[in-house]
User: Fold these one by one.
Assistant:
Number 1:
Amino acid sequence: MSFPSDFLWGGATAANQYEGGWNEGGRGPSMSDYTTGASSRTHRLITYRMPDGTTGALDQMVNQGLPERAEYAVVDGYYYPNHTGTDFYHRYKEDIALFRELGLKVFRMSISWSRIFPKGNEEEPNREGLEFYRNVFEELKRNDIEPLVTISHYDDPAYLSNELGGWMNENTVSLYERYCHVIFEEYKDLVKYWLTFNEINSAVMILAFVPNMPNEVAKTCFVKLHNQFVASAKVVKYAHEHYPDFVIGCMVAGMTTYPLTCDPKDILMAQKRTQDLFWYAADVHVKGKYPSFARRIWRQYDLDPTFFEKDTEVLNEGKVDLFTFSYYNTSCITTHEGVELDGGGNLSLGAKNPYLQYSDWGWAMDPDGLRYLLNELAGRYDVPLMVVENGLGAIDELEADHTVHDDYRIDYMRAHVKAMEEAIEDGVDLIGYTPWGIVDLVSASTGEMRKRYGVIYVDLDDEGNGTLNRYKKDSFFWYKKCIESNGEDLG
Ligand code: BG6
């Protein structure tokens, strides 16, 4: 048996995509509340209103900036899927009962910052918001499920982002600290596992797939990221000092970039891409300092090293206890001309890998890549690892008898569980697995419902029609057996 007996089998979600109740319980809006639904062919839009009442929409992927005097707004005629998510806010008891039946040991969820501090800068938290999560954590406890809480998952208060300068403003660090101090104290007896920021490296990953980004905009990505590193380090240190039982980790978007050919120039290119977009963030979190190649990156973007180096001590004092990451796909890059970049992925773009199969959304399915990445991480770091997102976004068919025959998802999960098992046999200290969107939820990139990851089906479509009823897919029964047998029975 390869999986340790206390292996944390689980499932993952995020408030902005799952919770709903966007304007209930005193919650303030976050940017996802102004973001429309889209599809794999169209980009999501962010809507706004002018003082004269006229409205408009910006492409989420292109940094156009708001027209002068415009304000982000919910505008008639658009559909905002994150407003409802899949309604965990009202259905958490029903969902937690399903998680128990499934056998989950751990449930990854996030707290919506604007439910606790609606604008981000209040002196006192919103008690109703605190009560909601207390109820959820108590319900999880009653069901013997350990929460794994992401403190910030693409869900900053809109006011903080738009009026207070967001992560460009160093003062946001202290607002984040205040938020963390409140939730740590409030839930200290209910939550042990915490993650400071979801996919923190997403701030710079966009550099690889947004074409022609002006250098001035690219520079801001590194500044925002640095301020988040500082915020993370400060609350990790605070947690270590005040709550020694906490396990506090980072969450980095797992990125494996293969060279498309064995041309040494391709090898170097893939190495550099991985340094820039993955190790840069991972090393700061785990080693508590910027890696040697950071200076090359700062030079490349004409960034002043003293800005990053002024916080050397803070970063060193806030090293994480646990390294967690998302893993969906791998990508290939090349220096060679004329190669089409038609292989998509989570925050990534590259050439198609002829040895791999692709999902309906063009993401490469690569379980060996997971084993490879786990080994890379274990060789570099001395902290336990956890895969906190993984899964296949696919179109599911709900049959008349409310079954869903998702063999493709079972195949994907089985292959990735086997890859984790092999990695453990390789010597990797892997402590848990929380597949993404264990209950169907809104896609982050497209806002679609039809891109489903769950083992639990939710009756809701891309236009917001549906009962929101939950149904168990075939993958539910497969995963249940996998958990019961601690990864032995993979059917
Ligand atoms: C990760 C995010 O990037 O990938 C999740 O942490 C997201 O929030 C997931 O949902 C899958 O991406 P998508 O775009 O298919 O929802």
Number 2:
Amino acid sequence: MCGIVAYVGPKKASEILLKGIKTLEYRGYDSVGIATLAGNIISVKKDIGKVDEANATLNFLALEGNIGIAHTRWSTHGGVTKENAHPHLDCSGKIAVVHNGIVDNHQQIRAGLGSHRFLSQTDTEVIPHLIEELMSKEGLDFVAAVRKAANTLNGRSAFVAISSETRQMAAARKGTPLIIGLHETSNEEFFIASDVTAFLDYTNKVMYLDDNEMAVVDVKIDGKIAFSSLTSGNELKKRVVDIHWHVGSTEKEGYDHFLIKEVMEQKHTIAAAINQDDTKILAVANDIKSAFGTFFVGCGTAGKTCMVAEYLFSKIARKHINSVVASEFSNYKHYLTPKTLMIAVSQSGETADVLEAIDVAKSKSVRVVSLLNVFGSTMMRASDDFFMVNAGAERAVVSTKATTAQIAVLTLLAYATAGKLQEGKLLLMNAASAVNDMLNPRYEEHISKLAFLLLNKKDIFIIGRGINYPIALEAAIKLQETCYTHAQGFAAGELKHGPLALIDEGTPCIAIVANDETKQDMINNATEVKARGGYIIGIAPENNEVFDYWLKVPDVGDASPIVNIIPVQILAYHIAVMRGYNPDYPRNLAKSVTVK
Ligand code: G6P
């Protein structure tokens, strides 16, 4: 979590940094800060709150200078305070640092810097002080001190430091992303960011910093950039890559929130998701068929789409695959062999737990194929092959269009594995067009009436079976994230083994009733809940007398997980707005979870 943007070039740095950091706000929004270098003075402005809130009082654009660093924070060490906001300075104010990740050994480092004056509770603040210490006590120059400091840090992280004395900028990567943007023609303009979207408006030319590497931009010698290994110090040659990625709009485009805009974009994103290269789909389907064990791995919502895949592969391809939450994957390492296949699913391609799972897989020579939504992400580069799910930039922390796009690609893979790729495509094209019809203002209004009815409910239960059991779990995530409601998903058959005791008069229970072999059992389970006073909200293609409120969805066969999650996305949005919460920025969460 946390977003970093840095700039060196002819333009006013604060303008570029302000725009860039706003784009990266999805990575954390506890506090924001910018430091620029004008003459030989570093000036810092920082405060708690989102970018616009902090900017309204601080006026970041008042910062002069053509060199600067910026940061948006998701707190790990130290509360949400102005002091803990980045950038952090050394004692002399000549070195400023922004950082993403965790310095696991910050306490030991801080203990060794006894004479330094610390102003925050963050792990990050040890970095500028350590650089300062290494320069003063060991006589290292700025670059050597940054290298040594980076090598001293334990844990996954990345940071960018500027020095007012040497007018250099140094970036070091040890586990979290940093990408360099270069001006199309001149070699005097450089961008550094956690994610390319922070500078794609200015350039498509990028260079990727890999783990244990550093980059130094030296303003004194005409903005020259040099790459080197953190460990050996040897110079590295880097390839310039042209990014041709249509990110899609990153603006709200007239909607009040990104969340509802992205829900509505599902009118088009399902069709975009299934627009895949057949040869590649068939090749990965073959990999799955011949693998000795396939693991689908993801976190949060992506973890739930992996679970959907497990059911889809059983139902459609008669193939046993395993879905595993990424943070648990290492516990399966004893089963991994070079014949194992891993399919890693991630919207951002930067989630720390998934990256660690990939490391574990790679250590056992497992082939890794990723399903991603962000081009150029760390996972893309760490995988043997990848699919883009083509959902376009997803800005709301709560995943919606990327989720249904992932499910669409996973469904396609299941059909391809069954030798029925064309059938799968037709099914999904039909689902895409059904979603297009479904997402109209009347539908949203009908769901907003239900949101009003549920406004003061403290608990919401969701039940599903088969391919829609993981959708019940995903629906619970949507309601938890946006409305801060206790929402829990269950396999409907498990109700009688405990959760039924929680149902009393008026408890809302959403029953996802697909028109498949699970339908009758689902109706029976909903009836049991109703008999105990439960208020039944049915998500189904057809109404049923057991439903107190019916959310109609199109009958799209085995693509039902795609259409069944959409009404809950809309419901969660409306409850959140009615409760006065900002659905784009759920408290305590961030979109890109780059710490374990
Ligand atoms: C965070 C986000 C979720 C997302 C999860 C995994 O928790 O808030 O929306 O599902 O991370 O992220 P990924 O980028 O790997 O899909």
Number 3:
Amino acid sequence: MDDQSLRGTVALVTGASSGIGRATALALAARGAAVALTARRAELLRELAAEIHAAGGTALPLAADIADHEEAAEAVRFTVAELGRLDTLVNNAGLMLLGHVTQSATADWQRMVDINLTGLMHTTHAALPHLLEAAAQGPRRVADLVNISSVAGRHAFAGSAAYCATKFGVNAFSESVRQELARQHVRVCVVEPGSVDTELRTHNVPEVQQAIDQVLGAIERLRPEDVADAVAYAVTRPRHVALAEIQVRPTEQV
Ligand code: NDP
């Protein structure tokens, strides 16, 4: 990787144990960032950190449940304590449990709100003082908050009411924060992937997974690296360029 434009910076990626978060951590590390990795599955984080170290990078595995707002804030504090600063936060951890409203367990809705929305908000709240400091005094004089939303944060779909509500919430929160921080050079970017081939769907019951496959049809889905590319592109723009919103779809996804 020739682009080392993130050298000297520190990034925290939530949900780094699999899928888009894992690929994003690798992409940022390949561009020179030291990366803090959070998720609940500590063993997977340790394996990823070892892979990054073996490639010459720096990585800090931090087991944390983002639904616990104290743990989310602690992950930010630990990142800064161990790696010295925070320039980039990628709020990626997420859960997607689909189903028609009448057939859904409201406890599933609450879990999604706790992880996708309020977990992201609390992590952001803990990180912002450090992002502001990085933007004011860091080597790049700019900092980045990237929130992984979804096409379901732009368009509502039957069978996805609660998930869409969390992602619409992510988009609204992100846009407000963007307006609040623009003048201080903290860029806020929402990334809205279409269908990506990850574990995300597998947390649903088999009938729901079949329904998802039927709606999508036999298309070639995105790979996690495709979304990681978009994140890496956004956070390596020159200081005066902010990408506020990126929608990445499989070419065939209508
Ligand atoms: P994965 O299921 O592969 O990854 C989800 C990640 O979130 C895992 O690392 C998981 O780690 C972590 N996570 C889940 N719950 C918690 C929690 N309570 N605390 C901490 N970490 C948690 O799915 P994707 O990579 O696909 O999903 C990443 C993001 O992309 C999500 O926000 C999702 O909504 C979004 N997205 C995905 C799309 C897709 O088609 N796949 C499309 C659009 C958006 P662990 O289990 O170890 O805690």
